[in-house]
Prior knowledge:
By secondary structure, this protein is α/β, with parallel strands linked by helices. The chain folds into 2 domains: 10-55; 62-214, Protein-Tyrosine Phosphatase, Chain A. The chain is 51% helix and 9% strand. It contains 8 helices and 5 strands. It has helices at 14-23, 26-59, 79-89, 105-117, 134-146, 161-172, 178-182, 201-214, and strands spanning 64-67, 71-74, 93-96, 120-123, 151-154. Residues 64-182 form the Swiss Army Knife protein DSP-PTPase phosphatase domain.
Amino acid sequence: MPGIGRLVPRAFCPPCRDLRVTKTKRPARAGLWRWLRRGALTLAAVLVLCVGHAVLLQLTGNLHTVVAGELYRSAQPSGEDIASQRERFGIRTILNLRGASPGAPWYEGERAAAEQLGIGHLDFAMSESLVLSRSEAEQLVTLMREAPKPLLIHCRAGSDRTGLAASLYMAAIAGADEEEAEAQLSFRFGHVPLPWLSRAWPMDESFEQLEHWLGFTAS
């Protein structure tokens, strides 16, 4: 009979069964996309927080107290910053960790402001991309120990070279434990302690190599 095919139930149609099998796979794909979306949103939130923290450090000059009445740390200060820090903390000495740069506006401005305010000025050249040797560390610690206090230390951003110098001060002069000392070289101050990804990773390597000299023999 020519029309009998129309009486066959649709449930026996192979294409219909294929469609039902295909539909069962959609929830798994949807779950994967939800997971990826949440991961992307979380990563975006972390990046926003990191950028916001970096902006905040720049706005505040990355100024922090290391040891009250003794040591303070900051990014490159302007003449106005130096005057403000002198009034606020009684700064008597500035230790510039960028090294002497005669003729550079930032350097000449810093020295002029220090001289005008009767603040001592010291230079010590460091590079965030080079490991600090033990002999260099000894020189730096001696400078910080003998400098009239309160002392302000700074580099350009106040994160890497300044972080290592502050860590050395805490360990060798202030008598802090290893955890307290290393905390000065952290993301809180803008330092990114990631090997191979951070140009300033040699600062972390420097501290690790100096631990025995600093008396941290357990690590």
